[in-house]
Amino acid sequence: VLSMTAQVLQIIRRAGSPLSKAEIATQTGISLSAVSDHIERLLVQNIIVASNIGVSSGGRKPKQYSLNAGFGCILSVEMGTAHAQVALTDFDCRILFMKTSSIRIDEGPEAVLNHIYTMVKQLMEDNGIEKVSVKGIGMGIPGPVEFSTGRPISPPIMPGWDGYPIKSFWSAFFECPCYVDNDVNNMALGEYSKGLSFGTNNMIYVKVGTGIGSGLIYDGRLYRGATGGAGDIGHFDVGSPVMCWCGNKGCLEAAAGGKAIVTKAQEMALAGKSEYLLQIVQEKGTVGVEHIEAGLLRLDPVSIELVRESGSAIGRVLAAIVNFSNPSLISIGGRVSEFGDLFLAAIRQSVYHRSLPLATRNLVINKSVLGSSAGVIGGAFMTIDQLIIQATDEKVETFPI
Amino acid sequence: VLSMTAQVLQIIRRAGSPLSKAEIATQTGISLSAVSDHIERLLVQNIIVASNIGVSSGGRKPKQYSLNAGFGCILSVEMGTAHAQVALTDFDCRILFMKTSSIRIDEGPEAVLNHIYTMVKQLMEDNGIEKVSVKGIGMGIPGPVEFSTGRPISPPIMPGWDGYPIKSFWSAFFECPCYVDNDVNNMALGEYSKGLSFGTNNMIYVKVGTGIGSGLIYDGRLYRGATGGAGDIGHFDVGSPVMCWCGNKGCLEAAAGGKAIVTKAQEMALAGKSEYLLQIVQEKGTVGVEHIEAGLLRLDPVSIELVRESGSAIGRVLAAIVNFSNPSLISIGGRVSEFGDLFLAAIRQSVYHRSLPLATRNLVINKSVLGSSAGVIGGAFMTIDQLIIQATDEKVETFPI
Fold first, then answer.
1. Complex prediction ipTM
2. Sheet harboring B48-51: ordered strands across?
3. What is the tens place of the pLDDT at every residue in B298-356?
4. Which stretches of A147-300 are assigned E, i.e. beta strand?
5. Which residues of chain A does B197 touch, with a Cβ-Cβ cutoff of 8 Å?
6. Is B294 exposed, middle or buried, given 0-12, 13-18 or 19+ CB atoms closer than 10 A?
7. CB-based contact B226 A154, cutoff 8 Å
8. Which of B27, B153, B224 faces A358 most closely, judged by CB atoms?
9. Could you tell me which residues are beta bridge partners of residue B213?
10. CA–CA distance from B397 to each of A26, A31, B84, B134, B381 (Å)?
11. Cα atoms found within 13 Å of the Cα of residue B230, Cβ hemisphere only
């Protein structure tokens, strides 16, 4: 349970606009005089700021309070299998500075994290950011995480990372706390809090990249499941004959992920089904998602067919998820989502065909608006959430700890 | 947001054992002196009671507080398509008196609700319960519900009930508030709060009756979805050729529900595959689930095969749900769950075969312990929850409103 001061801070932070003491009292159930005490404490800490722009109800205008976005920086790191993004954000999760670099996750935690730390140091130096300004570190990784400890749990595509103490790595360089979550959870939280949320409280964010995963916002909160594994849709059976790395056949990921698309494209190129793709194979040696994307623009029939098939398979799984979870928004992100309208249309068609009418009555299915920034933005949001919660856990009534 | 008094009441109510003021202060983040004020207010209302059985830490033993189970009665009604259960419970959701009767839901809301009201009146008269003792009414119905208004929304197996104002029906007879939810949601809440919960916060309750549905407890709270439709697993595609009432082929419900089992049993009896079942058809004209159950005990191969096939299909869908929702407990209830070990074993086998190892690491799959009482117990729990919330919404600091 949050301390009262932390509850007041959360209400202020999550509101879209500045709040008066009376509004805070109404929304928390705390008495007006107690709200004043908490506000005073937060003002002294400089974590909130006051403004006088409230609407007057006759007398002088009431003061309003909002988060001090400039309170400090959050270091947010989004790690994929082949790329890492490093961002410094303010306390409103706006990206101040960002840097991207190639990595190879199978080089293991020491090598990869040292490389990322070098990026961080460079980004901070280039922009004159002192370590003391960084109040928290948030990281997203492409595998299941035990959130309380920040350790990867048997991550299938991160060889060498199982159980690695990522938090300890960062604490050698920074004094502030570090939090680690699954990458798609961070993306879902980013899209929910700062992206396309339509005021909805029930949202599923689907990342279609090399693999396929999802992050779940239920009743306004990120749902991680009993052991941090919630949102796995990659292994739903779509009846395809392809063998998946998990040992089963028919998995969605093996049929419709980015890797599946390029593998099939290569096969069809070599089978002489597409001149365009054959030329790519001959010139580059291999087909990448960027070539499929270009193929769509050139109206290459095989590229179009593969993307439509992928969207259709994803839609069949989402149809079941829609019946089961009854969200009001599905946000589609990840590299493959950038294929655009054709891909989205195939997903929608499949969902509306197969879901129950009641479940789709008010359902919106859209492309993520934060794009490739969803992860770092959500990582920063998650980190600030945790800083507030941790202040309570350690029985400290002040923020930051 | 709950008022502070209501928050204190919820903490006391949900604790398994009496709490001291200090424990309440720790769990709510409210100061000890404020806790004392709230406790005083609740004691005056008689909704909590004090005891002196706490462990002394040197001085006199601290007083402890618990819910006054005898504060009043809840009227809890569980309505199926063919039966209705009417129960009076205390404030600890224990069933004091119960009555069951046959109904025909397709006779429409007026006829059915009047019949149920007659049952209620009889039950109260027989046991000397006055109307004034009934503090709230909770009802579960076999279809989607808009929870805020208590109206059924396009319920597929309740002809004539769409949009019917069930709350208004009850308010003609009782002055206390009435709340209506989907039947499986009530069962899930019952099993979670008073049944087999192992201290878990993430549970899925699956009802296998004529149809198949589920209720979801995520992070300790019932999840209803954006429009009250969450938990629908009956229309997951299991690849069967049977047409479902929803217009699609392959739905789980059409392949593995109680109705599907007896339909197939009858076909196989007439095809001469089972002497036992043929005899039933000749004697009774039709096969019921009770005959399949008896067939299991007599080792009738067709009954065994049908039950195993049903469990296996349900397990395939639950495997996907386990990956996606990562629960720590799946509780199986409903009439078909009473088929026993063979049915449960088929479900487990399918789930462990197809789910990711990480998701099943600590997963328990068990039969519901509340059995056919889960719905009325959960309906009472839901009602008390809402009484507490409503006391806040209407800005009343006292309970009951």
1. 0.87
2. B19-20, B64-67, B48-51
3. 999 999 999 999 999 999 999 999 999 999 999 999 999 999 899 999 999 999 998 88
4. 151-152, 178-182, 203-208, 212-218, 221-223
5. none
6. middle
7. no
8. B153
9. B207
10. 13, 12, 36, 21, 21
11. 27
